[in-house]
């Protein structure tokens, strides 16, 4: 998705990823041999150095990268590394990230450092209460890395599921809704937020996004944007950031986590906003003027297409069906293998009203692969 606006703006890109035919490489053909994509892990120092020698600016689409090597290569790059390796390092450890946010006076719920022992978890339960959200500090995504302890008898299971991972825990937040705001930050530090959206998760995976956020109190959406902008200002470097938040019944909000990259909650911007999150990411890291973040349609939703099994045909046939729904735009990621729980693509739906949007979305939901609920 980053390769598409890059191509339109005639910006060359070189991707480092394991697969020779990984999704981005399928989209962006190198214009000469010296601009060939690189096959390798984004944690591999040699491969990162190889990439750094070929580009003017280096950026990331996943935070689980080797921040130390990025820091080392940064001085050799004409336009640097964005976002800053220090930002990536803070964010990739969720516990360090939470401490950073708290130390900048930003709203976060109670969290605690813990050890991977029964005693430490019992102590945390005493201090924080139940349910207790136990999280891996690193390498977590789509809920893989979280365990909710609802009663004392689950401690052993939590330790078994999260074994060998560095842990911390959080107080359970009884949120009314989960919301998110994308924020673009330029190399001069200017920030521009997108409209607040509501995100709906299923089995810990983002299922739906509704844009803009509809709330009985119209102040909430602006407040969410202000909190998200303040959070992003606390980090170094340019680029797009996804800010996940919990909205409570009393209208207060807590930051959940920040992604230093394009984010699933911002995919709707491709069809629904004046400038997509991907294009604004490119503009931000290249010191080009940031584009308008305003919506250009009254109502939008994004539905993730998640594998229900290993059958790629299920996904393809859903995608074909989605093409029949007015206002729906289909994105298939070209991932070679389908797996249960794997994000295979998404569909964005736009409409002239919320009612029309819901009607269009209903048809799509009824045809999603997998069990209905
Ligand atoms: P991931 O890295 O997998 O996105 P998150 O920390 O965002 O992990 O957690 C995934 C989901 O779990 C959240 O979107 C939210 O639904 C739920 N969650 C996370 N932390 C809490 C919490 N402290 N209280 C209640 N729900 C939580
Ligand atoms: Mg999350």
UniProtKB/TrEMBL annotation:
- Which GO biological process annotations does it have? 'de novo' IMP biosynthetic process
Q: Which pathway does UniProt place it in?
A: Purine metabolism; IMP biosynthesis via de novo pathway; 5-amino-1-(5-phospho-D-ribosyl)imidazole-4-carboxylate from 5-amino-1-(5-phospho-D-ribosyl)imidazole (carboxylase route): step 1/1
User: Is the keyword Lyase in the record?
Assistant: yes
Kindly report, in one word, the top-level EC class recorded for this enzyme: lyase
- Gene Ontology molecular function: ATP binding; metal ion binding; phosphoribosylaminoimidazole carboxylase activity
Location of this fragment in the whole protein: 1 to 373 of 562
Q: What is this protein called?
A: Phosphoribosylaminoimidazole carboxylase
Determine the domain of life of the protein's source. Answer: Eukaryota
Q: Which UniProt keywords apply?
A: ATP-binding, Decarboxylase, Lyase, Nucleotide-binding, Purine biosynthesis
Q: Which family does it belong to?
A: In the C-terminal section; belongs to the AIR carboxylase family. Class I subfamily.
Tell me what organism the protein belongs to.
Phanerochaete carnosa (strain HHB-10118-sp) (White-rot fungus)
What this protein catalyses is:
5-amino-1-(5-phospho-D-ribosyl)imidazole-4-carboxylate + H(+) = 5-amino-1-(5-phospho-beta-D-ribosyl)imidazole + CO2
Q: List residues of the ATP-grasp domain.
A: 98-286
EC numbers for this chain: 4.1.1.21
